[in-house]
Amino acid sequence: MDSEVLNHVTSANVACGWHAGDPLIMDATVRMCKEKGVAVGAHPGYPDLMGFGRRAMAVNPAEAKAYMIYQVGAL
Prior knowledge:
This protein is of the alpha+beta class and 75 residues long. The chain has one domain (2-74): CATH 3.30.1330. Helix content is 43%, strand content 13%. The chain has helices at residues 2-5, 23-36, 61-74, and strands spanning 11-15, 39-43. Strand 1, helix 2 (23-36) and strand 2 form a beta-alpha-beta unit. This is LamB/YcsF family protein. InterPro entries: Glyco_hydro/deAcase_b/a-brl, LamB/YcsF/PxpA-like.
């Protein structure tokens, strides 16, 4: 399904694995985007796979920064 959606967009935000996705899905999605000329953006999240990033979490600014750097770097 992702491949079909990519035929109709110019950019895609790719889940970076903490609230959805995993390294294999990230890699496959980025490859599909490159093949179709779709720009890639990171969709980082909180370390909350079970809650899909929707649960309240106490995170200080330093932790939030580290989470974002880690996930964007992985993408």
